Structure formats: structure tokens, C-alpha cells
Amino acid sequence: MKLAIVGVTGLVGREILKVVDERHFVVDQLIPVASPKSVGQKIDFHGEHYVVLDHLSAISQKPDIAIFSAGGKVSREWAPQYASAGATVIDNSSAWRMDKNIPLIVPEINASVLTIRDKIIANPNCSTIQLVLTIAPLHKKYRISRIVISTYQSVTGTGAKAVRQLENERQGIKGEMAYPYPIDLNLFPHGGDFLENGYTTEEMKLLNETRKILSDDSIRVTATIVRVPVFGGHSEAVNLEFENEFSLPEIYHLLETMPGITIRDNPKENIYPMPLEARGKDTVFVGRIRRDESQARSLNLFIVADNLRKGAATNAVQIAEYLVSASLI
After folding, report:
1. Annotated catalytic residue 234
2. Which domain holds residue 8?
3. CA atoms of 87 and 289, how far apart (whole Å)
4. Per-residue pLDDT tens for 239-253?
5. Most exposed: 131, 140, 208, 239, by fewest CB within 10 Å?
């Protein structure tokens, strides 16, 4: 197994290395790849030193799988070239997600659609992954007609520059700004770029990706993205309206038996999902499960996950594991 990690020196790239190690994904040859400014750097993996390569050098080594986490522009330019050289690309950017010919995969939900012909596979947005993992079994049982989402997203979702901004602000240091405003002791309803309809690109990802993964364009979705001063973990307050009536005990059962979900829901003991608890974990935590008493057949949930783990690195590695187990490479 020759595994290339493109963007290996970034936040998600480093997390991918950690997840590969923790999950004991067998790698015979690691091929670390990054931008020109990082080429030549050394990284450690399994006690060995590896030199970071450029794309052409990496492609010449014929990787079996290439996990990309280097942004949409890089993915658009280089993913097809890796694929043409025989690699199966798992891409973390938004470049390919809505391409009708590219599968958008959360392994617990729809890995079975993958075939040996799929040489580029899209990893969904971090906020989408924790949402669909939670609602997929509920949609299958009750049919979701509408979703209202408010997110509370960690600065790690923006990248290392945003993390440094928050660290600087907490230490009273003036430095480079990733956001147009201070983030410490603040929050703002802005994630991605604003579009003509008043929504942001991040909000529209939740709409479009959810529909694609669940294979249902009839689901109505509206979202508000909020950036909060948290170092790890995205949170979502979600309201679901179903076509069919449900019972709370059955909701609990469906979530308890869904792989990748952990229920944290005991209000009397102040037990509910929090990003502090989710940080460094692969599971998606769900709590505050209750009926919406303002309208029929509706449910409220609070969903939290580490956006660098299940929201990016872990999901990508799980796709790689499936490709190997299903003999698709």
C-alpha cells in the first residue's frame, strides 16, 4: 500500500497521519506531499523520517491512494493527474462534491455505491458529515421533509491562521487576522463567502451535500453558520420535521444502533454534547433529544463532533479502509 497525503503539513494533513496510525491502516510506503514552501521538510511517521515531496515526484511513485487536504484549487488541478496515474483520490475539499459523476461518501451511510471505476471520491464538508450521520437512520424510518440548522463552528475549520488569531487574542498579541473581526469573546454569523441569495457557501453546502448523500432532493434545508471561539469541535442545533409520526424511544434506539453515534443525553445530570468532550474523538455526539412542541412530527437535536477528526481526517481514512476491504484498488 502506497499512501500519498497531499497537504500533509496542514491541520487536517497532520490529523490524517494521526488517524492512520491510530486505526492501524497498513501503509507500506508513505508519500507526503505539500505546497512548494513545505517541500523538503521532514515529517515523522512510525519512527521514520520522510521528506515532503512536490506533486510530480509523488505521482512518479505511483501511489495506490491519495488523500487530498490542500484546498479546492489544488484538488482541481492535481487530483485528475493522480487519478490518471492510477491512484484513487479521496478529496477533502469542496472541488468535486457536487459533481454528479463523483461519489460523495460517508462510509456508514453510502460506501456501497463505490466501484473500482471511481478514481476521485469526495469527502463531505465537516458540518455535513456529523449532520447526515445522525439523521440518515431517522430519514430512512420517518422521511425528513425539512431541516433547520444553526451551527457553532470551531476556528480550526478555517485553518492554522485562524487558530493563531484566537491564540494571539487570548494572549493580547497583535497578529495576522484570519477573520474580519476579533474571534475571542465574540462570534459572528459568517462562514464561507456570501452569495447573491444572502446565504454563505458553507450554508449552501449543508443543503446540497445533505440532499446528495441521502439521495433525496425533496428535503428542504435552511442553515445559519456561526463561527465561535472554540479550538476543536463543531456543534449544531438541528430541528427536523418528519413526514411520519415518531416515538422518542424509537428515535433513541435508531441513534444508539447507528455506527459512529454516541448519545449524550441526560439533562437531569447536565449531560449533553460539548465540543470540549468531542475533541480528539472520532464519534459524533448527539443529545438534547426532544420533541418540538411548536409543530407536529418535529424533533430537536444537538450534534457535536471534532471537525478535524470525523469531519475530515477520520472519514477520509474510513473511505480508504473501505476501498481496501472491498478490493476496489
Report:
1. yes
2. 2-124+312-325
3. 42
4. 999 999 999 999 999
5. 140
